[in-house]
Every structure is written in structure tokens, then in C-alpha cells.
Amino acid sequence: SSDVCSSDLTPTGGSVDVSLTQRGTEDNGDCKYELRVKDSGIGMSEKDVQHMFERFYRSDDIRDIQGTGLGLSIAKWIIDKHEGHFEILSREGLGTRIRIILPKKHP
Fold it and tell me: Which phi and psi angles does 4 have, rounded to 5°?
């Protein structure tokens, strides 16, 4: 876990784990990078997960926590521009797991 990745949504004593792995092989052109972020924070409802990449979207549950609702929409724009995608698993009260899959580009 890392203080750099902790946020107001992960309780004191909670954790944020980050890992990066390479999947596939360069030989067949199926090489991808997988970035995983997992926290033990407050988690999100299914409704919130469906809207989490919308600009300025803020869950009613966290309106008292500072933020603009832009961070995830900007992250999605960047990942989309690199032909990647997100996979999200979140449960209220348990935390969130995010996988970002990016193809390895060859010059």
C-alpha cells in the first residue's frame, strides 16, 4: 500500500494496493500491460459504478468529501486515447478493484 494512492475514501488503517504486470508476448503482438488498483475503502453502489466516468458525477454518499468529479473522466479519456479499457469491481463497504488494460505499442 502507498500513501500516494490513499484518499479520503479509504479509511485510516485501510489499504490501497497497486501493481503493474505485462501479459501476453511480443512475438504474437498480443502484449498488454495490466495496472491493478485495489482498495479497502467505502466501495460504490452499482448505480455509481455505471456513472463513475461521467464528468462532474459525484455520488450522493460522498458529497461532503472534497472533489470535482473530474478525475475518473479524465483518466478514462487518457486510457481510451491509448486504446485501453477499464474493468471495475466494487462492493459497498468492502472496497473497489480497478483493472486498466493497455496494449503495448510497437514503434
Answer: -60, -35
